[in-house]
Amino acid sequence: KGAINALNDMFPLATHSACFFHLSQNIYKKLQSLGLSSRYSNDPEFNLLAKQIPALAFLQANMIVDGWTLLKPLFKTEAEQQLSQYFEETYVLGKLGMRLRGRPTKQTMRNPPMFPPEMWSVADRLNLGLPRTTNVAESWHRKINRLVSPNPGLFNFIKLIQKVQNETESTIEQLIQGRISKRSKKNVNVQNARLKCI
């Protein structure tokens, strides 16, 4: 969360997005910590219910609270309700808390969620043809790590960044001129087309 706040401070006009894969992974990790993983694997109804949580990311951000309001009552057992509470507090509405306002009157309020729906909804990115995950950024980081030694020194690191930048600009120019086409996997295109129909 600290990194997100720092990015918001440094780039206030930028749109900051979370990764759909990591959202799904966080929900599954919580599910495991609550002892629900065998049920997730063996109970098709619960499996479908649990998968509907990250599926909320395909709604517009302003529709997620309404979608969650419809989904939340379907979580019945104590462990399911703990999963529901985790998701609601972390991703949808935030935690309930007591705040002192002015005079000593206590008022129950919600703190904002750590990751608000505007951050993890992929609906707008899908409509704009943008990626739902951070795979591209992670690929770039792997490339840099592969090219640089553990302690490259400032001069060598700057040379490396300049080399990568030149390669990127060359690729952009080739794309603009139509000499190379952007590679995209067929199954990703099919998935994106299906998701746009939702």
**Alpha carbon gyration radius:** 21 Å
Separation, N- and C-terminal Cα atoms: 31 Å
- On the 0 to 100 scale, the average pLDDT is 81
Widest sheet, order of strands: 1-2
Number of domains: 2
Protein name: MULE transposase domain-containing protein
Give a written overview of the molecule.
This protein has 198 residues and is mostly helical. The protein has 2 domains: 2-97, no CATH class; 134-196, no CATH class. Helices cover 61% and strands 6% of the residues. The chain has 11 helices and 2 strands. The protein has helices at 2-10, 20-33, 37-42, 44-55, 64-71, 78-92, 117-120, 123-127, 135-147, 154-177, 186-196, and strands at residues 96-101, 105-110. A two-stranded antiparallel ribbon has the order 1-2. Strand 1 (96-101) and strand 2 (105-110) form a beta hairpin. The protein is globular.
Keyword list:
2 domains, mainly alpha, 198 residues, two-stranded antiparallel ribbon, globular
